[in-house]
Write a structure and sequence with these properties.
The chain has about 90 residues and is α+β, with helices and mostly antiparallel strands. The protein has 2 helices and 3 strands, in the order H-E-E-E-H. Strands 2-1-3 form a 3-stranded antiparallel β-sheet, with no helix packed on it.
Length: about 90
């Protein structure tokens, strides 16, 4: 295996070590239909729309836009070794 996705541990690390991430405020939508179904859309400009549209009324949230990946992977491996007695190759 060349890689593994660590979404859940990364989310937890973002709470415990926010200094490893860059966060930006904005609004988020997820496409539920069409060719972009499942795509996450992010309005990082946090625009104030003049006419009501699909972004209207959406709350602004903080979104991680960058991460110190090496530090996060290191934390995940360290915890796996602590909890599982090693076993990480």
């Amino acid at each position: 295996m060349d890689a593994a996705f660590c979404h859940d541990p990364t989310a937890l690390i973002a709470v415990l070590r926010p200094d490893l991430f860059t966060f930006k405020p904005g609004r988020v939508r997820v496409a539920t239909q069409g060719i972009a179904r499942g795509a996450t859309l992010f309005d990082e400009q946090d625009r104030q729309w003049h006419k009501k549209n699909a972004w209207s009324g959406r709350p602004s949230v903080m979104v991680a836009t960058a991460v110190d990946a090496a530090a996060v992977v290191e934390m995940v491996f360290e915890r796996m070794q602590e909890w599982g007695g090693g076993g990480v190759v």
